[in-house]
Amino acid sequence: EVQLLESGGGLVQRGGSLRLSCAASGFAFSTYAMAWVRQAPGKELEWVSVFSGIGGTTYYAESVKGRFTISRDDSKNILYMQMKSLRAEDTAVYYCAKDFSPFGAGMGAYDIWGQGTVVTVSS
Amino acid sequence: QSALTQPASVSGSPGQSVTVSCTGTNSDVGLYKYVSWYQQHPGKAPKLIIYEVANRPSGVSYRFSGSKSGNTASLTISGLQAEDEADYYCSSYTSSSTLVFGTGTKVTVL
Fold this sequence. Notes:
The structure holds two protein chains of two kinds. Chain A is mainly beta. Chain A has strands at residues 3-7, 10-13, 18-25, 34-39, 45-51, 58-60, 68-73, 78-83, 92-99, 110-113, 117-122. In chain A, strands 2, 4, 5, 6, 9, 10 and 11 form a seven-stranded mixed sheet that branches. In chain A, strands 1-3-8-7 form a four-stranded antiparallel sheet, with no helix packed on it. The model of chain A has no long low-confidence stretch (mean pLDDT 95). Chain B is built from no helices and nine strands. In chain B, a hairpin with a 5-residue loop joins strand 7 and strand 8 (99-101). Helix content of chain B is 0%, strand content 44%. The chains are: A mainly beta, B mainly beta.
């Protein structure tokens, strides 16, 4: 079964750091772009970042550029998001998501999503 | 990058058809075929229902269809059913090499 399982969320003070993890199983992880998408309470989905499957290209939303770093360990099938200088507006459920097509840049469609991990930034 | 514009809500009776619009610019929706639609039930993760404007992933009901004209994409749900009541989001690739989601539309089955 294709599955994504996020972890690492929690309560952190403003200005603090947190690292999220997303463990993948059931598919050839290294060949797929993987992304992080977040959703603040009662708000719309917001794309955060993507790591392509081949070539290692990364992209970020302007709202997190310079503060968040996406990475992946293809030997362990894990996607990461290192978050620093956290702000109240970073409070959200963070989902990891798998690109629909292999060898893509990860900007098309996401067909598998995790259950999400909650990040709360307190002031 | 501003969110794509969707109506806050649409509603219809069982069996009817409803259409959700998604308006962007000539730097995203109008420029690329990479428009997707997601269905999200309360407390759940989003589910991909349309990719590349009009394609349905395996297992998604034929009642969901997508199209695009200029800077506006549309999702049509035909034969509306109670289980279709959910939030719907569009997304598009952008000329800045990012992805942008829509503001979301709540579909209510009357």
